[in-house]
Task: inverse folding
């Protein structure tokens, strides 16, 4: 393997032209999205509060309290993004990326609770119909609630997809669930105006079903991250990118996982057995640099170098043996 020197190596070697850290930039994108959407949601809650004071609508009051309270889920997510910027230390040697996924899990729980609350209120309206006054004000405020929550949802989901944050996408889906709750109030008011008051609880139950689907989708994504689930295409892309690097004779193992919205990978490669340690190290640096530029969201990668004549996991397996009075075992 010829010696390859990356033009601007990463990590502790430093970039020669000192560009912004992509991880910090992606975290900033998440923080800005949370701030912008939170401002929109608080403004929406203020408008709805004024409408409640005029109309006295119980349904709109419940929707307003629900939206205002759920807007506060942005706070743990914002804190998670802030913590993710901390450097690894002796206690948290992999950093604080998992905090983001824990915040996402809390958001999923809130979405599920929203579905239960919507179902409860819908059944209650079937059993105890409520008269809605000031239909125009209620409808307008519900429309504002729908528009505000949907705007916040799009900001969070778009930013979450941009930086690959399952937690931020989940919070966007949470805002969308709140938008649907406001929509149910709007449609319920329309039903009363048309002389069909049962439309309110019927629409509410339909919205409950949609929120349950949202909770399932968001929950599966967040829990998958916590269990180190990744798209198989990511590992295959890393394998192909690694195998195309000069001097790599084989790629024997690829393991990938998410830490928050950042990817980490462990890659084992086989090289010419005649290389010196220094030449093998230089080749590993080249592969690492190549992957960091080639694979989106990849923040850290460890390259393990084996001689081609003795590579792969089986070569590193320690055969059956016994020691310290333990039964025979292998590693």
Result:
């Amino acid at each position: 393997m010829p010696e390859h020197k990356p033009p601007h190596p990463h990590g502790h070697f430093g970039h020669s032209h000192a560009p912004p850290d992509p991880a910090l930039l992606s975290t900033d994108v998440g923080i800005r999205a949370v701030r912008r959407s939170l401002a929109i949601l608080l403004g929406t809650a203020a408008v709805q509060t004024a409408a409640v004071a005029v109309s006295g609508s119980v349904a709109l009051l419940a929707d307003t309290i629900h939206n205002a309270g759920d807007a506060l889920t942005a706070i743990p997510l914002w804190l998670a993004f802030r913590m993710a910027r901390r450097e690894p230390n002796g206690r948290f040697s992999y950093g604080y990326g998992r905090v983001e996924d824990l915040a996402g899990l809390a958001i999923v729980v809130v979405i599920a609770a929203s579905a239960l609350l919507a179902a409860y209120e819908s059944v209650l309206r079937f059993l105890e119909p409520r008269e809605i006054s000031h239909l125009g004000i209620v409808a307008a405020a519900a429309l504002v609630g729908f528009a505000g929550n949907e705007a916040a949802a799009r900001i969070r989901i778009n930013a979450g997809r941009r930086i690959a944050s399952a937690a931020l996408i989940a919070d966007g889906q949470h805002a969308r669930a709140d938008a649907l709750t406001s929509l149910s109030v709007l449609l319920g008011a329309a039903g009363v105006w048309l002389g069909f008051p049962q439309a309110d609880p019927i629409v509410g139950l339909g919205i409950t079903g949609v929120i349950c689907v949202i909770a399932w989708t968001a929950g599966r994504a967040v829990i998958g991250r916590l269990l180190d689930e990744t798209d198989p295409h990511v590992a295959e892309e890393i394998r192909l990118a690694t195998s195309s690097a000069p001097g790599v004779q084989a790629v024997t193992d690829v393991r990938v996982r998410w830490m928050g919205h950042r990817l980490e990978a462990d890659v084992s490669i086989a090289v010419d057995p005649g290389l010196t340690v220094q030449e093998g190290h230089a080749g590993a640096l080249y592969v690492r640099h190549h992957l960091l530029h080639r694979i989106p969201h990849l923040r850290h990668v460890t390259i393990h170098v084996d001689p081609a004549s003795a590579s792969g996991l089986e070569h590193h397996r320690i055969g059956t043996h016994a020691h310290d009075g333990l039964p025979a075992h292998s590693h």
Notes: The CA atoms of residues 153 and 173 lie 6 Å apart. Confidence is low (pLDDT under 50) at residues 9-20. The two ends are 31 Å apart (CA to CA).
